[in-house]
């Protein structure tokens, strides 16, 4: 049976807010969790991923989990360690103890951010970035997503908990940079992909890239499509305006060289 009650972690965040608007129309009852309170959602669970007791309560009785919570940009290693590495481990342990069978894990393109990007259009003949491209994290953040993918693989092989790990491109209401034209995932396609990841049968551990069917796509969407995902959006209608404002990506621009763009070169700023 398709999962009905789904725990959505990171529900206060940008993508969490978009998804809690879109997913109920697919018939899901969402249980919300975030470290921050969510306005207008008195039943949301306010808890940190380090709080194992709270996680144990949160996962009890759910059919599946969508795990979006965590630090979503580069940060000092100690913070990434707590929120993304230990936090994701804590959630998988809670799922194992409660017998939850399916998790959808929000990985990121930054797990493979140092991969040279193909040219912008499939017409160029460049191969799309494959699913089995070697890991090349571009940040401690990307490293934590690489860890999450391997953790999910371990929990499938050892404990039979299924995961669809999605290397998300950029999930925002609209693409705002030329790079995003290639990796944008419209919110509506994001909801379609999450629904496919929750309902496809026998996924075991499955890794997919997450984006719309962009004309300038950089990666292989075949494993996402194999789940039943049929993207309906394309960033191309935004292309002319963004290129007029920002120019085409030129050699020397990190967005031209690597999938992860500026995550590859920007020195992290360490808050004191
Ligand atoms: P966001 O930063 O807007 O939201 C993340 C949420 O997680 C926040 O509400 C935050 O309060 C919560 N959170 C952080 N640490 C926590 C902790 N220790 N305990 C409990 N809650 C905690 O990020 P966004 O854009 O919504 O992304 C959601 C997920 O998808 C993240 O895991 C991110 O890494 C991943 N992702 C998002 C992409 C995007 O384009 N939006 C692209 C690639 C990956
Ligand atoms: C990510 O992993 C971030 O969470 C998101 O905020 C965007 O920066 C996205 O990657 C991107 O590469 O555009």
3D structure, described in words:
The chain has 272 residues and is an alpha/beta fold. The chain has one domain (5-264): NAD(P)-binding Rossmann-like Domain (Rossmann fold), CATH 3.40.50. It is 34% helix and 14% strand. It contains nine helices and seven strands; from the N terminus they run E-H-E-E-H-E-H-E-H-E-H-H-E-H-H-H. It has helices spanning 14-22, 52-59, 77-98, 140-159, 180-183, 187-199, 222-226, 239-246, 254-257, and strands at residues 5-9, 29-34, 45-46, 64-67, 102-108, 162-168, 205-210. The protein has a seven-stranded parallel β-sheet with strand order 3-2-1-4-5-6-7, sandwiched between helices. Helix 1 packs across helix 6 and helix 2 (52-59) crosses helix 3. The longest helix is centred in the first third of the chain and has 22 residues, at 77-98. The termini are far apart. 47% of the residues are buried. The chain binds 1,4-dihydronicotinamide adenine dinucleotide and D-galactaro-1,5-lactone (15L). D-galactaro-1,5-lactone (15L) is lined by residues 72-73, 108-110, 170.
Query: In percent terms, what proportion of residues is strand?
Result: 5-15%
Q: What is the total tally of β strands?
A: 7
- For the residues shown, what is the average pLDDT? 94
Give the termini separation.
49 Å
Pfam families: Epimerase
Family: Belongs to the NAD(P)-dependent epimerase/dehydratase family.
Domain NAD-dependent epimerase/dehydratase: 6-170
Protein name: NAD(P)-dependent oxidoreductase
Features of this protein?
272 residues; alpha/beta; Rossmann fold; 7 strands; 14% strand; disordered C terminus; binds 1,4-dihydronicotinamide adenine dinucleotide; binds D-galactaro-1,5-lactone; NAD(P)-bd_dom_sf; NAD
């Amino acid at each position: 049976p398709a999962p009905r009650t789904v725990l959505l972690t990171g529900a206060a965040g940008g993508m969490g807010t978009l998804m809690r608007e879109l997913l109920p129309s697919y018939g899901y009852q969402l249980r919300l969790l975030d470290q921050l309170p969510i306005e207008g959602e008195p039943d949301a669970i306010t808890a940190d991923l380090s709080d194992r007791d709270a996680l144990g309560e949160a996962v009890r009785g759910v059919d599946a989990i969508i795990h979006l919570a965590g630090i979503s940009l580069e940060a000092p290693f100690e913070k990434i360690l707590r929120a993304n590495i230990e936090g994701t481990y804590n959630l998988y342990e809670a799922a194992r103890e409660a017998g939850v069978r399916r998790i959808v894990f929000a990985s990121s393109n930054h797990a493979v951010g140092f991969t040279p990007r193909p040219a912008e259009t499939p017409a160029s003949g460049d191969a799309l970035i494959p699913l089995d491209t070697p890991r090349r994290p571009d940040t401690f953040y990307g490293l934590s997503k690489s860890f999450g993918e391997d953790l999910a693989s371990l929990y499938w092989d050892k404990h039979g908990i299924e995961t669809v790990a999605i290397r998300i491109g950029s999930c925002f209401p609209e693409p705002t940079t030329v790079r995003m034209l290639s990796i944008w995932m419209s919110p509506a396609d994001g909801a379609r992909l999450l629904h496919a990841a929750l309902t496809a049968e026998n996924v075991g551990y499955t890794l997919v890239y997450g984006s719309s069917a962009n004309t300038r796509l950089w990666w292989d969407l075949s494993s996402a499509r194999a789940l039943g995902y049929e993207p309906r959006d394309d960033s191309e209608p935004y292309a002319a305006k963004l290129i007029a404002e920002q120019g085409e990506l030129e050699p020397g621009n990190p967005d031209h060289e690597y999938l992860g763009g500026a995550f590859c070169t920007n020195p992290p700023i360490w808050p004191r």
